[in-house]
Every structure is written in C-alpha cells, then in structure tokens.
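Hey, quick one: can you model this chain's 3D structure?
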Amino acid sequence: MRKERIQTLFELEKEYQDISPKEFLYDRQGPWPQPSANHPFGEVPGVLHIPFVEWAWWWVTVGFRYIKDWFFWWPVAWLKAFRYGGLHELTDEKFSEIFLSNLLC
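Sure thing. Here's the predicted structure for all 105 residues.
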C-alpha cells in the first residue's frame, strides 16, 4: 500500500506522460527541493542538481558581495556602532504610534 502510494506521488499526470523530458525546464531534473538524504525525517528539504550557470550567477550577484562585506565592511559597522552608541529609549505610546500608523496596518 505504502509503496504504491509513493510510486503514484512520483508519476507524471496522464496529460504530461506523452511530453518528452526535453520540453520541460531542466529536462525534468531541475533544482527542486528534495528530501535531504542526511536528514530525511522532517528537516528542511535540500535543493539538488543546481545547474552551473545558476550557481555561478548566484556567486556573481550575491556570494561575492557577501564575502566582500564580511571581510571588509566590519570596521565600518563597528565605527557606526561606536559613533551612535546604541538605541534610544522608546515609550509604549511612541511604539504604538509607529507600529499602528504604517501601511501594513
């Protein structure tokens, strides 16, 4: 029973069975979240089979900026924290005014 249920979960719907894999994005083997092999019992799924072009694009647009900021911008953050010295006291009335008078209310 369980094996049949699992098998039906991974089968394509009848209307898509005649379509070749080449007509799908990533040939039906794309970077979709899949159960983690190391932690299969409810942990966050991992994304497997990421194409090299997308991996490289992530590093160009996000990864290198993160590494650069991590290594070279911490002195700026430290100086700003030292200069401004922390947060000012916020009363309940002021908090309610700020919290209840925005576009998300």
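One thing worth noting: The longest helix spans residues 52-72.
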